[in-house]
Amino acid sequence: MDLPVDPVMTKINAVPDTSRYSISGLTVAADLEIPGAVALTDVWQTADVTIASGALPDRLDGATGGPNWQMTKTAFLIVVPGIIRMLVSNGADIRYALIGDTAIEDAVAFLSGTGFGILLHQRERILLHASAVRVGNRAVLFCGASGAGKSTLAGALVTAGYDLVSDDFCAISIDAKGVSHVAPDGRQLKLWRNAIDRLALEERRRAPVRSMLEKFYVEPRAATACPLQLGAVYMLREQRATLAPGIARPSIVDGTLMVRGNAYRPAIVRRMAQQKLYFDASASICQHAGIYTLTRPMAFHDLPVTIDWLEAHWRDIGLLTRAA
Amino acid sequence: MNKIWLASYPKSGNTWFRLLIANLRRDSPVDINDLPHSGGMASARARFDTVMMFPSGLLTHAECDRSRPDYYRATASMRREEGPDDRQDTAIDNVQFSKVHDAYTQTSLGEPLLGGPSAASGAILIVRDPRDVASSLANHGGWSIDDAIDFMASPDSGFCNRTDRQPNQLRQQLGGWSRYHAGWLTQGDLPVHRVRYEDLQEDTAATLRGALEFAGVTVTASEIARAVDFAAFDELRGQEDRSGGFREAPRPHGAASFFRRGVAGGWHDELTRAQRERIELDHGGMLAGLGYTW
Q1: Closest chain A C-alpha to B122 CA, distance in angstroms
Q2: How many CB pairs under 8 A join A and B?
Q3: Interface pTM (ipTM) of the complex?
């Protein structure tokens, strides 16, 4: 005898065809594997964000934009030429289409970086282009443009005993008391071969970020999975003529401008009229944590000295307890 | 905004020329460390990332090259983008001068790398005697003069072309000294005004005036004279000494100072006879074409 089929049970019994990840404190359902992200074992968890392939429009009505992107208040359409097209909507949905014969493994870094960054901007997070490590029970951020040395410094600090919090961007949320928190963007570093060699991290090297790049995911010695209160924000600067080395505290006005200038995509902040959000966040960060400039030589052999400066500073501002 | 490429093989006087323009219509010499620098350069990475909204560092050099024509066309009339590096290009009146060291090449899709006539209205090509370039390049990079001569002869030579790290700028293919100049002089997309470093030394005011006329900028004789004074070698070198350095100077492995001699013909006492002969053998045709004698 055939038993009647319960439609509800059938639906629940089907294993979902998406994986679950935690990125910057959000639960993400994705139809692809996201290397470097924190994978969740509970595949039934309700997702805040969906990443899936699908058909994309050629243009957005009423949009403004740049050479390869268009945006409205709720949607952002971007093309990485020859690789991937992405539509990021309502801070909750990333739809993508691969271009030509691009393999998903060669495009996923643009989804988890560029696409997710745009999505966090849409969610009105304070999103900084920064790496972060855990010092005591606080997150310490290192801001700078691509190439400023964020991941390398984070890699050196992880090797020196601090847990990784973020590699590329930090989404800051501010609670009702004005206290800032940072959720990790992933569980792995992304480092170039040269940095892996110089930091002696070969054993921890994993898959390439894209098959044709000598940039790899690197398993950190330890990573933090939970949100941390913000301890300090450093703006990375290279020591060149006229810039004195060391750690300094800029004026509140300068610090505010630095925070906004180090937004993941400053043009989105401007176009979405989020300047006040960043101004208020900067004021709160100044009050509860601290904004500093870290001006240092960028050679690998200078990293230990930079770490010495940082540790001395962390003792000064109470993030590390002083040695007896 | 009208864009003019300020093109030159490295160490040919591009910075001096930009300082001359930056000193036009000023009451005191511009601070060498306030000169809009690599942020406005064609190969600036941060600006590419800001405009295109994705990280160039995740592209191969060839993939990045394929996006560059669109990028230059989009930024042709764009003066400034907010970001960590928001310095604008050297500009006067309605003309924006943008430094470029890239050779004039086509992408694999057959487009001019620099975007062709929709990205700029012309180019000022600054050329310098390769025998002087060799010693200046060696000093700048902390190389031997022979290494510099090899580099200038190599068709594969370029800046920021490593693949095991993210260079601070986008890759710039140079193609060797002769091919570099042949590329810029024979392309048919843009009008080119040639400025010889030696002429700039010999008669700075007249040479600068000719270049500015080409670019469509009208300046008075006294404005030119003042800019020439403000960007005189002694002034630049003095500022470099007093301020603790020039931020565009190479990193510690290279030269002690950026403004080194500021002379034409310094090669007479810096190159051996064999070195001079090798450069003349490598580049004889282009040397003659550009009016240099040996």
Answers
A1: 22
A2: 118
A3: 0.92
Q: Is B70 in contact with A68 (Cβ distance < 8 A)?
A: yes
Question: Minimal Cα–Cα distance from A57 to chain B, Å?
Answer: 19
Our CA-based measurement puts residue A321 at a distance from the nearest CA of chain B, in whole angstroms, of 33
Chain A neighbors of B54, CB-CB under 8 A = 78, 80, 110, 113-114
Structure tokens at B204: 């700075």
At residue B83, does pLDDT exceed 60?
A: no
Write out chain A residues lying below 8 Å of B66, CB-based: 81-82
Counting Cα atoms < 13 Å in the Cβ hemisphere of A5 gives 5
Q: Write down the residue that tokens 């921890």 correspond to.
A: A204
Q: Are the beta carbons of B164 and A146 separated by less than 8 Å?
A: no
Percent of chain A residues past pLDDT 70, beyond the cut: 94
Closest Cα in chain A, distance from residue B277 (Å): 37
Contacts of A6 (CB under 8 A, 6+ apart): none
Query: Two tokens at B283?
Result: 């580049």
B167 contacts in A (CB within 8 Å)?
Answer: 147
pLDDT tens-digit readout, B39-68: 578 999 989 999 999 999 999 999 999 999
Q: Quick check: A39 and A225 in contact, CB under 8 A?
A: no
Please answer whether residues A207 and A217 qualify as being in contact, where contact means their C-beta atoms are separated by less than 8 angstroms. yes
Identify the band that residue A324 occupies on the pLDDT scale cut at 50, 70 and 90: very low
Count the Cβ atoms, other than its own, within 10 Å of residue A267: 19
Of A197-201, B188-192, B255-259, the one with minimum mean pLDDT is B255-259
| Nearest by Cα to A145 from A159, A129, A168 | A129
For residue A174, count other CB atoms closer than 10 A to its CB.
Answer: 18
Using the beta-carbon criterion (under 8 Å), do A81 and B53 form an inter-chain contact?
no
- With beta carbons under 8 A apart, name residues in chain B contacting A240: 245, 247, 249
Q: Which of A68, A88, A146, A268 to mutate to test the interface with B (most CBs of B within 10 A)?
A: A146
Distance CA B134, CA B129 (A): 9
Tokens representing B294 are: 């040996």
DSSP state of A2: P
Residue B232 included in any domain: yes
The total of structural domains in chain B comes to 1
Q: Which of A66, A147, A297 sits opposite B51 (nearest CB)?
A: A66
Residue span of the structural domain in which B105 resides = 2-128+171-247
Query: Domain A126-316 is in which class?
Result: alpha beta
DSSP strand pairing (A126-135 vs A138-143): antiparallel
Residues pairing with B193 in the sheet: B124
B184: domain CATH number is 3.40.50.300
Count other Cβ atoms within 10 Å, centred on residue B223.
17
Q: How far apart are CA B259 and CA B241, in angstroms?
A: 10
Tell me if A78 and B164 make a contact (CB, 8 A cut-off). Answer: no
CA–CA distance, B112 with B116 (Å, rounded to integer):
5
Alpha helices (runs of H) in chain A, residue ranges in sequence order = 7-13, 108-110, 116-122, 150-159, 193-198, 252-261, 266-271, 275-288, 303-316
